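Figure 2 data, in text form.
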Amino acid sequence: MKRLFFFAFVCFLLTGCKNDGPSADTLALYQYVDEWVYQNMSNLYYWNTTLPSYTNTSQNPADYFKTLKYKDDRFSAIFASYQDILNQLNGVSASEIGFGFQLYLESQGSSNVLGIVTYVKRGTPAESMGIKRGDIFRKINGQQMTTSNYSSVINYLFDTSTNAKVTFSVYQNNAFTDKTAVTVNKAANYQEDPVYMDTVYTISNKKVGYLVYNFFTNDPGDNTMKYDLELNNAIGNFKTQNISELIIDLRYNHGGMLSSAVNFASMLVPNLTANKVFSYTEYNQNYTNYFNSTDYTSKYSDNPFVTNFSTSINVTSPGTVSIPVQNVGNSLQRIFFLTGNNTASASEMVINGMKPFLPCILIGDTTVGKNVGSTLIHDEQNTKNQWAFMPIILKYFNKDHLSDFTKGFAPDYRVDDDYFHLLGDTREAVLGKAISQISGIQSSPAKIAPVKRTLLKSSIDFKPISDGLVVEIKPLTKR
């Protein structure tokens, strides 16, 4: 999100004092955007009855939006560029550094901050140069990260520059030694594939499917359903190999599109049928009345209050085709979900939606706790208005009408992330715990005990949208 900075200038004897604030044109646009935001919030916002009375204003829309949010709303957000946000929702980055990370306090009592790579993105220069999970970095463009500067220094990894100099370090004998800084080139217009890894293990004569899925989106914005079809193929492969156990790794999955969540859940539920309920949805009174009205029911056949599982994936580009959903639900007696402190929204929706149908064993860390959904609003009438916002518009419930996880899902087995092993390595602690539950054999403790450090932020937290469940919604009929 772009921020507007104001600088104070010293006025000398022959220099008139002048406040170079926003221009008249900018203020006029702000006034238009603020009114546009308020009108849409009045219609859509889940907590619209808490909105203050409208007053004519020309505040920066980012500041104005804050005055409208309900006190318990942690997730509604506004953005200066609609296209940038749309790209992010589709997994497209104009300038991608190529790896995810977690930031930690270097040690108790220290002000230094370090980053640990969580996974490296496929097809990026970072992957080509051998950066891997567990690599530690402390400096970016020569600046040591500290508690006072890391929020700005880390942005060198996310800005539009073509590269960043990263200083990786090794930790030995309770001390860090910096390596020579390396230049990491960024991938331009990078399309990240959310289906990061899928494999099958044989554990105690059982076939065990393992899937790492990092966010929910159908495709990179081209209506091909590319990623949902890839996910479908992975589940189809699990089915062909006759898996009887399934481990789904959502540790770095911050959510995404509702439609992908429905398709994914449909691949997992036992006895899949098109009339089986996945979730129920609650809206504000405006939309509740509208969806119940003859004005709506005479035009549309869907029921906005109920989301059913899907038996097919509908593709519209390059041609229209319906692909049957591959389903392994009847082969499973339970599902293991690997979770972390970034597991949010659409990920939690799948977990919540599966609970009435299969035992769900959670391993890792407590999830975010987002049982609400947003929609992306942009101005289709005025091209000068490039702002977009994502207000919370609904709360969702599973088949049993349960939605009681605002503090997140606590894991059944609390296990710290193990950066000493790559994702998919059965010795990796979180995956290993799931495997030990399947085999009945306790996993061996790591040869190197993890150092306990205070977690500060993750790479997801520096994205404009850090977590989400994004839905498409039909607009209220204008009267």
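Caption note: The chain is about 20% helix and 25% strand.
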